Amino acid sequence: MRIWVNGQERELAGPASVADALTALGLPGAGVAVAVDGEVVPRTGWPARTLAEGNRLEVLTAVQGG
Amino acid sequence: MTYEDEPLVVGGHKVGSRLIMGTGGAANLAVLERALVASGTTLTTVAMRRVDAAAGTGVLDLLRRLGIETLPNTAGCRSAAEAVLTARLAREALETDLVKLEVVADERTLLPDPIELLDAAEQLVADGFTVLPYTNDDPVLARKLEQAGCAAVMPLGSPIGTGLGIRNPHNIEMIVEAAGVPVVLDAGIGTASEAAQAMELGCDAVLLATAVTRAGDPERMAHAMRLAVEAGRAARGAGRIPRRYWARASSPATD
After folding, report:
1. Which of B132, B141, B162, B205 fits as disulfide partner to B184, beta carbons 3.0 to 4.6 Å?
2. Taking the model in full, what pTM does it have?
3. Nearest Cα residue in chain A from B101
């Protein structure tokens, strides 16, 4: 299935959870936060939250700033 | 306890230093580390960005190693909705309810958008955040942010990164006079005398980044800022002399 990750279109074998997506895309699991379609998914909810075609993921971390 | 020894408490969080640092603008992490250590800061801002952004993520490891608490900001957000989402992501990623709320109106001035800022502050307070809003040097807006439940107010001295110092000291004094929460002078500081001035005006702390990270020698400037904040706080506590129009001899008159 196709999803959007940080504004980029990505292909993912479905069905997949948020946790699966992070692993499959090689993204770090520590120090990051995830929102799906504008809703924050708490870390504890990553394995249970299944993704659907067209979902938009935002994966953020802390960088130098401010 | 003397005025100088009073701890800074922001919404129940005890902050060990009255100089809050930003991490933006440092040439590399080694320079940043030396500057942070020299500043004596215990609370430092970080920004939230997409993980695939070019910027590194080593800053979190650095802050943890130095025992410095993180203050995530919502830099780059232009609307209340964006800022609220960014704050919620920061809370999840960094496990802190502190947020430096920043909602700017445009890239040219980076001035806060007061309407979006107040909207975001209300939403985040309702969601349990300890909100530190970066605001204009507007006493009315500062009062409204406090009434909305913000844990501090952080008026600018001048626009972010300009180093123009405190353009309207009288407004800062009025904000200090009326505030029931800590006032943090945030943005515009260019050099140590301006950080001291902020404290002399009665601010509870100073937040700065560029003045240190882009200084000729960031480590030395960080040390200077630390001394300036201490000196300004001590001078405020001591009470300055009133300004006079005419001279007043400090030596006895001859007869």
Report:
1. B205
2. 0.90
3. A66
